[in-house]
Structures are given as C-alpha cells and as structure tokens.
Predict the 3D structure of the following.
Amino acid sequence: MDAAFLIAAGLTLAAAVAAMSLRNLIHCALCLVVTFFGVAALFLLLGAEFVSFAQVMVYVGAIAILIVFATLLTRSAGVTGEPLAFQPWLVGLGIAGLVVGAIVTSVAGSGLLPTESSRIVAAAPSTRELGEQLMSTYVLPLEVVGLLLTAALIGAAVLGLREPKPSTPPPKP
Amino acid sequence: MAETLDQAFVLLKQWLVDRFPADLQPLLSAFLSAAAIVGVFAGLFAFTTWLERKGLARIQNRLGPNRVGPYGLFQPIADGLKMLTKEDIVPRSADQLVHFLAPIMKVVPVLLAYAVIPVGRNMVATDLEAGLLFFLAVGSATELAVFMAGWGSHNKYSLLGAMRAIAQLISYEIPLVFAALGVVLVAGSLSLPAIVDSQAGYDWGGLARWHVFTPWGLAGFGLFMIAATAKTARSPFDLPEGESEIIAGHMVEYSGFKYALFYLGEYLSLFAISGVGITLFLGGWREPFSWLAWMPSYVWFGLKLLACIVGFIWLRGTMPRLRADQLMNFAWKFMFPMTLVTVVAAAAWHLSAGWNFTGAGLWRWALDAAVILIPYRLLGARHLAPRTYRFAD
C-alpha cells in the first residue's frame, strides 16, 4: 500500500468518526466536508479524475452547503448542549451493517471486481469514454434521473412560492 | 529566435530541473511551477490594487494614490506593511479554529485553480483531462470559506451576510457552468490546453478562429463574464461585501492580515476566472491576427488578462450595486435561460459545421445569431421598456 492511499483513507475515516461524534452540528458538517475531500482523493488515486472532481463539485459545493443551511434554518444556532441519547447506537450499527452488507454483496456478485489478470490491463476510462457511455448505453437512466431532479426542483420552487396572504394591501405605486 | 523567446520560461525550468538528481526532478518541477504561479499572480494582485485605485480615482475625478513612490506605485507595499502590522483581533465568543481556517480556505482552493490554466504555449502546471471540471470544483469550495467566516465569527450580521453571499455564489455558479458548456461541446474536451488548441487557425485573411468570433461564443463570453463578476463578488454584484449596507458581510469580524487574505483570495479568483474565460473564448494564449504571431504566447495571455482586469475596474467605477432581489431575478430569469440558449446555439454551430453549399458560412452565421437573438428579445424585452419606479416617484 502506498503512502498517499494511507493518508487519504486515514483522513477520510478520522473525519467521518469526528463527523459522527462531535457535539456541535456545524463542526460535524465541516468534518463531513473533509470526508468528502478524502473520498475525492481516493477516487483520484484510482485514476477516476472525472468522478473525483464531480464528487468535490456536488458534495462539497452543493450538498455540504445544503446541510449547513438546513441546520442553520431549522435550529437556533446548530449547537445542541445535551449528549446524544444512548439507545439509538445499536439501531444505527444495525442499519450501517445492513447497508455495508448490501453494498458488499452486490459489488461482489456483479462480476465487476478486478481479477489478477484484468488488473494490469484495465486502464481508467477517460472522461470522453465516460461521456459517450452516458449518452449511448446509459442514456435512459440518465434521463430518468434528470426527470426526477427536475420534478424535485419544480416541487421545491412551488413549495417555496406559497406565501401567506398580506393582511393589508401594499401601497399603490 | 521568436521560438526561443516563446519557450523561454519552459526552457529555463527544464534547465534548472536538469541540474538535480533524477529522483528529485518531478518534485522540483512541480515546486517550480507552483512557485511561479504564486509569485506572478500575487505580484499581479499588488499591481492590480494600485491600478484599481488609480482607475477608480480617474473615473471619480480624483488623483488616487500619489505619495508613495512615482505615481504612487509603491502604495501596495505600504498597504501590505500596514496590514501586517495591524492587530489581529479575534472575537472572544468566536469559534477559534473555524475563524482561523476560513481565510486559508478562501485562498488555497483559488491557488489550486491556477494549476490547470495554460498561460502560454506548453506553460500549464498540470494538463488534467478534466481540467475545466477541476477549476469549477475548486471554485465551489470557496463558498465553504464564506460560510466558515460568517459562522465562525459568531456574529448575527456576519452570518446573515454569509448566507446572502452563498445564495449569490450558488445562483451564479449555474450560469457560469452552462456558459462554459458550449465551448466544451464544440471543442469536444474538458482539458483547457485542448480547448486552446481547438481555437487554432485563421479565417478571412488572418483573423484568429476564437470562439468569441462566433454568435454563440460572443453571447457565451458575455454571459460567462457577467457570471464571473458575480461569482467573484465584484461590483455591480458586490452585495456580499456591501460596505454601505452590511459593512463587510461575512468579513466583518476580521482584521489585519486575515482580512487581507480575503482580499487576496478575491482578486486571485478574479484573475483565475478571467484566465479561464480567456482560455475558453478568447483563444487562450493565441494571437488575434496571423501577422502578430511573432509575439510570445505568454505576452498575449498577459495582455488579455490585463484587458479583462481593466474592464472589471471600469465596471466597478461606473455601475451602481444591484439590490438582492434584482440579483436573484437576473440570475434565474435571464442568465440561466440565456446560457441554456447559448448551449443550443453552440450545438447548432457544431452540427452545421459540415454544411457545404454556396453561402453556407453566411447561412450558418445567420441561423446561429437568430437562435441567440430571438430568445434574447423575448427574455429581455420587458427590461427594454421605460423603467417604472415604485417608491422613488
């Protein structure tokens, strides 16, 4: 294992642990950002440039901002004094185990894992190949995802538009 | 001779790197590139502060800095010393670590962005295959710095200013990406040196084949630069700073060199985004006419960058600041649809490249211009009517 992988993986894990265990919700969100950067670095080490930069752009540029905005808009200042309740950790562990199990079994069963012979040959697909695949083989999933996101966007705009009616009419210009 | 002059810095770096043992060479090469970027663009920052103060003074009928050195040229040094010796005040209730990290988070991603910008022939630090995406990705990381500054200061006003600033930055990121998308569509690559290469060659007796000389390119360049102005919080989109309304928004609790770091980050991102705009639309380091090809490539890049900076200063001196609702309406109701239209126009241009009949070039131009101009009239028509004032009559 080379040093770059160890640093990136260690950083990702440490930041993830911090994101779960810190008291201050904003600190948790900022640690989550470090995790996102770490995952992006891991992608980069695997030669997946496009995925890595998309990870930073989407998760750091949008999702992290969304998380902190949601935290600030729903709680007073994002600071909770009381410690986390003890009970949910068993449930959390169970759910995490289920998710990990599902991912591991599906990846192991997909036949996409590199074998000893393919590891030498398989070069990371270039950004151009990625784009061509998305526009030809995987065009239907792409369109479905796009439609879903558009529907969510319009729904959010409609929800945001609903304003309480003003009690007094605004002054005439 | 011209060839040697053009490659002077590349050859110099090669010569320097060759002096060292082979296992040190990759490291040294990366270090030299990074050192050159930091040195040159930090120097340009100092020069730009002087130029901006002089330019604004000229627009406002003043003299501007004229005490320190000839024409006030040493003013940036005096400013820097002042900033260094100022007391660094951290509010007692501030989140110490986040407050400390925010200015660094602002400057470092901006410096990273320079890694993919080609400033001359063979003069790019790393030619990434997805270079444009890298630039956009590190650019989106600066929003986090704004949030960290606003929240870390533990001040209601800085937090409100930060949220306002982030709303603006996110809203204008979308037109910025879509304006750049047209170029990617036509060039067929996300790598910035490849995009420069896609603009090689000349039309009509010596005019370079830059993207800005096509209808979609002209519209795209205008929209890209407007979005860039908003993304770097320059006037008339300087609401995040808004010194007359919210004094400095998210930076209100910063002083001394940390405050200067925010300014450094702002100007560096202005240069970087101008550099990308030049690369995408203005042919990068390529010369505008074939008979000017003897000048070194980096000189052309520098001249274009300087022209962009002067344009930004001119805008700042002559435009009033937008209101927050005007800013958002402009982003979502004009910029965003227009950038989508430019993507369609770029696609039309790309598809009509194979036309081969008499007057094909003219028809291609007319069609592409119509694709841009008709939606522009429909979207912008209500803004062309005489203004009605709600409160100022």
Q: What stands out?
A: Helices of chain A lie at 3-21, 25-45, 49-74, 88-109, 116-121, 127-136, 139-161. The radius of gyration of chain A is 22 Å. The mean pLDDT of chain A is 80. DSSP finds seven helices and no strands in chain A.
